[in-house]
Design brief:
binds zinc ion; Aminopeptidase
């Protein structure tokens, strides 16, 4: 599969009558595409995929979900947002390699992080070599696998919420005010819930909802430990809403999971969005989006219109400022 083919799958939904809009922009200026099904009044659910580059099959899973919930009478009393591919630049690097990039500085930066190999099929990060699902401001930099130098995976970024994709998803979440969020990842067939520091009553609530997801999919439900800075973690810590990470696909499958596995994954997950909406409605009195944290959220640097040219100039300055002798995996920035 090429990146163009992946993007065509998302954009093609418009031909079926779904309205697409931008949830934000990537570092290289790509649109982060989203859609909505159901009603805009009432509780909302936000489901996002593809935040890790090589896990782009989750974007195709969300395309299939949105397609089948469009004009579906069962979506009522609220609505569901789908953010198909939170990390489009990373997905393109994973699928196409780095030849598409015009900026030699970026290419060399990525090549050196990839040990000189032009095979980027295992790539997880965004184009800045930041692992987006460790970059959110939720116990940032305290995860067991975190690294503090740019890398194809696990690099937390130079500061929390530093990445445009992360800022975009935060902004979009604050605008859409979901009662529940679900993040689709690969792989392992498990569901993660909860976050350290979460209140006892919210853990009980999240576990109860999570058990319903577990029953529906057959995926075991696991409390999150030793992992921080994810979108789910941020939703739980800053918004105090229930949020889940679904790791789909059998552990034995190699990354990236091939699209031949999509039907099986879809079948196990196809009713998850409707169940999430049902739970959002059921728990709507207990889930308060307008909690005090929302007023004080740091969404990082001021956004300007990104494109590859401006990115190329920026990355050069970053190299000057942060030469390799200052980069150590033993300390945070
Ligand atoms: Zn992932």
């Amino acid at each position: 599969m090429t990146y163009q083919e992946l993007e065509n799958q998302i954009v093609g939904l418009q031909d079926e009558g779904l309205e697409l809009f931008n949830a934000g922009k990537s570092v290289l200026g790509k649109n982060i595409l989203a859609t909505h099904v159901g009603e805009y009044s009432g509780p909302q659910v936000l489901i996002q995929g593809g935040i890790h580059a090589r896990e782009y099959i989750t974007a195709l899973l969300l395309v299939e979900m949105a397609r089948n919930l469009h004009n579906n009478d069962n979506v009522k009393g609220g609505g569901i947002y789908f953010v198909f591919l939170t990390n489009p630049d990373g997905a393109q690097i994973c699928l196409d390699g780095i030849d598409f990039l015009n900026c030699d500085i970026t290419k060399n930066y990525l090549l050196s992080a990839n040990n000189g190999s032009t095979d980027f099929s295992q790539y997880k990060a965004n184009v800045n070599l930041v692992d987006l699902n460790t970059n959110f401001d939720a116990n940032w930099g305290e995860g067991g696998q975190n690294v503090f130098c740019p890398a194809t995976e696990d690099f937390v970024g130079f500061y929390p919420n530093s990445e445009r994709e992360v800022q975009s998803l935060i902004d979009f979440t604050l605008q859409t005010k979901p009662s529940i969020t679900i993040s689709y990842h690969t792989k392992g067939n498990v569901i993660y819930y909860g976050f350290e520091g979460e209140s006892e009553s919210n853990i009980v609530r999240d576990q109860s909802i999570g058990e319903s997801f577990s029953e529906l999919t057959g995926y075991p439900l696991i409390f999150t430990e030793n992992s921080t800075g994810g979108y789910k973690d941020w939703c739980i810590q800053k918004l105090t809403i229930p949020a889940y990470t679904f790791e789909v696909g059998d552990e034995s499958l190699p990354h990236p999971i091939g699209i031949e596995s999509l039907p099986e994954i879809y079948n196990r997950n196809k009713d998850v969005p409707l169940l999430a909406l049902q739970k959002a409605i059921e728990y709507s009195k207990e889930i308060d989006f307008t909690n005090p944290f929302v007023q004080n959220i740091n969404v990082g640097v001021k956004k300007n219109e990104p494109n590859e040219e401006s990115y190329c100039a920026r990355i050069l300055r970053k190299f000057d400022r942060r030469s390799s002798n200052r980069c150590s995996n033993n300390k945070k920035w």
